[in-house]
Amino acid sequence: MVNGKNGKAVTPLPFTIHPYPLFPFTIYHLPFTKVRYMATSKTGPRMSDEAVKAKTGKVWKEWFSILDRAGAKKMTHQEIAMYLHTGHEVGPWWTQMVTVTYEQERGLRDKHQRPDGYQISVSRTIDAPIAKIFKSFANEKDRTAWLGEEGLVVRKSTPNKTMRVTWNDKKTNLEVYFYLKGDEKSQVVVQHSKLASEKSAAGMKTFWAKALDRLKAALEK
Prior knowledge:
The protein is of the alpha+beta class. 38% of the residues lie in helices and 26% in strands. The strands form four sheets. Strands 7-8-12-11-10-9 form a six-stranded antiparallel beta sheet, covered by helices on one side. The longest helix has 22 residues, at 198-219.
């Protein structure tokens, strides 16, 4: 235990040393969280002010100011995360999110970089029922028709809500979110994580943009 603000005891984050120098640590066992994204930011889509304030008590601008005053520009990723956890009692998942977003905003981290690799997110709003969109991902034959890729492994899914998938390279992961936007309109968001480099992240972002465009065209016929 360590002391946080107001002298309250705070459980240290489960940091561990990662064998690759680019990513000095990893936080394990982060809970799955459904989030909303802002349309734009300096580095692309990110969680909305509404979402981050609901979970941490502050909007992005406030967190950026707090971390600037704390000298976070000169801190390591682990030091920033520990400061948020012990000094402001931010939970493990949101400690990671605030740290990464701050590093991206201040140019301390590549656009799509995360502690365990690179991650991209692509979304499309489709004029189709959410169940139909979910089936297009869940059914292997339907998925292959628009995606053009085989060998994906669905690890876990909640119908019409979320899906966790291992990509066919057996190294990277997908998290797919489904949101109802109306009786006949829905949104799908694909996050592809653990990508090896900024180049591969950019390539997969283009890939998913084209793939979701194909899905949208097929379902809106």
